[in-house]
Design goal:
By secondary structure, the protein is an alpha/beta fold. The chain has helices at 38-52, 81-97, 124-132, 186-195, 224-238, 250-257, 278-306, 311-327; strands at residues 61-62, 65-66, 114-118, 137-142, 155-159, 171-177, 197-213, 260-270, 333-342. The strands form two sheets. The chain has a seven-stranded mixed sheet with strand order 5-4-3-6-7-9-8, with helices on both faces. It has a two-stranded antiparallel ribbon with strand order 1-2.
Length: 344
Amino acid sequence: MAGSSPSNPPQSPGHNTAEATTDTAPVEVDAPPADDGDSTFSSELSSYTASLTSSILNYPTEFGRRYHAYNAGSYNFPNDEAENERLDLIHVLMTKGIGNKLFLAPVDLDKSARVLDIGTGTGIWAISVGEEYPNAEIIGNDLSAIQPTWVPPNVKFEIDDVEQPWINGEFDYIFSRYMSTSILDWPKLVGNVFEHLNPGGWAEFQDYDLLYYSEDGSITDEHYLMKWIKLFIDTARTKLNREPCPGPKLEGWVKDAGFTNIVHRKFRLPLGSWPKDPHMKDIGMCNIAQLLEGLEAFSLKIFCGVLGMSKEEVHVMLAKVRQELYARKFHAQFDFHVVYGQKL
């Protein structure tokens, strides 16, 4: 496959890496391959996914998936092995999406900085930062103990809920990524981040606008992908009171919390192998791989547990979405927002 090898490690802002696509020129569509059948794409996707992934608590099981136990109900996605592998794909997607970098804020972690990774998930970002900056102290917190036990000596993980009172002191850099549909009160969270930064410290927020779009009109509201994502977004907002598309709102929350030197960047993340540019094609393959893996994880608990749909209804809906994705008839993408600011 063209583009960067999935094994290439992401870098910090100081490294010379591939430029990320920002919200400027349209993403050019590549010509479809001569053999454009479902089996060809499935084989291509399987090879890509295999190159990216490898294979304490009494976790509950619902709809055939395992969920976290701590503050049960505050997070609506699984924490089983399949979901953990998808979260590692998300890490690859987001680091590639911003130029193969771990973060963008101009923070100096070469010295003895104290870093907090909010909602660390599998801990892959915290571990990567800990390996690159051995003098920094990295703490990752999450609702589930799904992180590995063998980690760099400067990295540790805690079971915690960031929407509860914080007790772990002050930090020089606080990082938050992919908290879509997870937070009840974003202004409160961003305010807590500000309060727990040392003077001169930085915070960085990276998150989605999940609503797909195309620049050439190839995707419409009649596509099952759009029907699915709009139902997901509406349910998250109206039934769960959680924002599924926090990306465009991050800058406002950061300003209101009192940050200065704020920078807001927007990146386009294509869905599928349609971009002509090799780097964007690589991002698109990673994106569609994580979506196909996550369709069930996103949908079952919310659509069945909240909306009362049957598993059969949900599986029929998802089958139609998958069929569209494998057919590669549209050029969908969504926006990924990065906002960072400093506490003076």
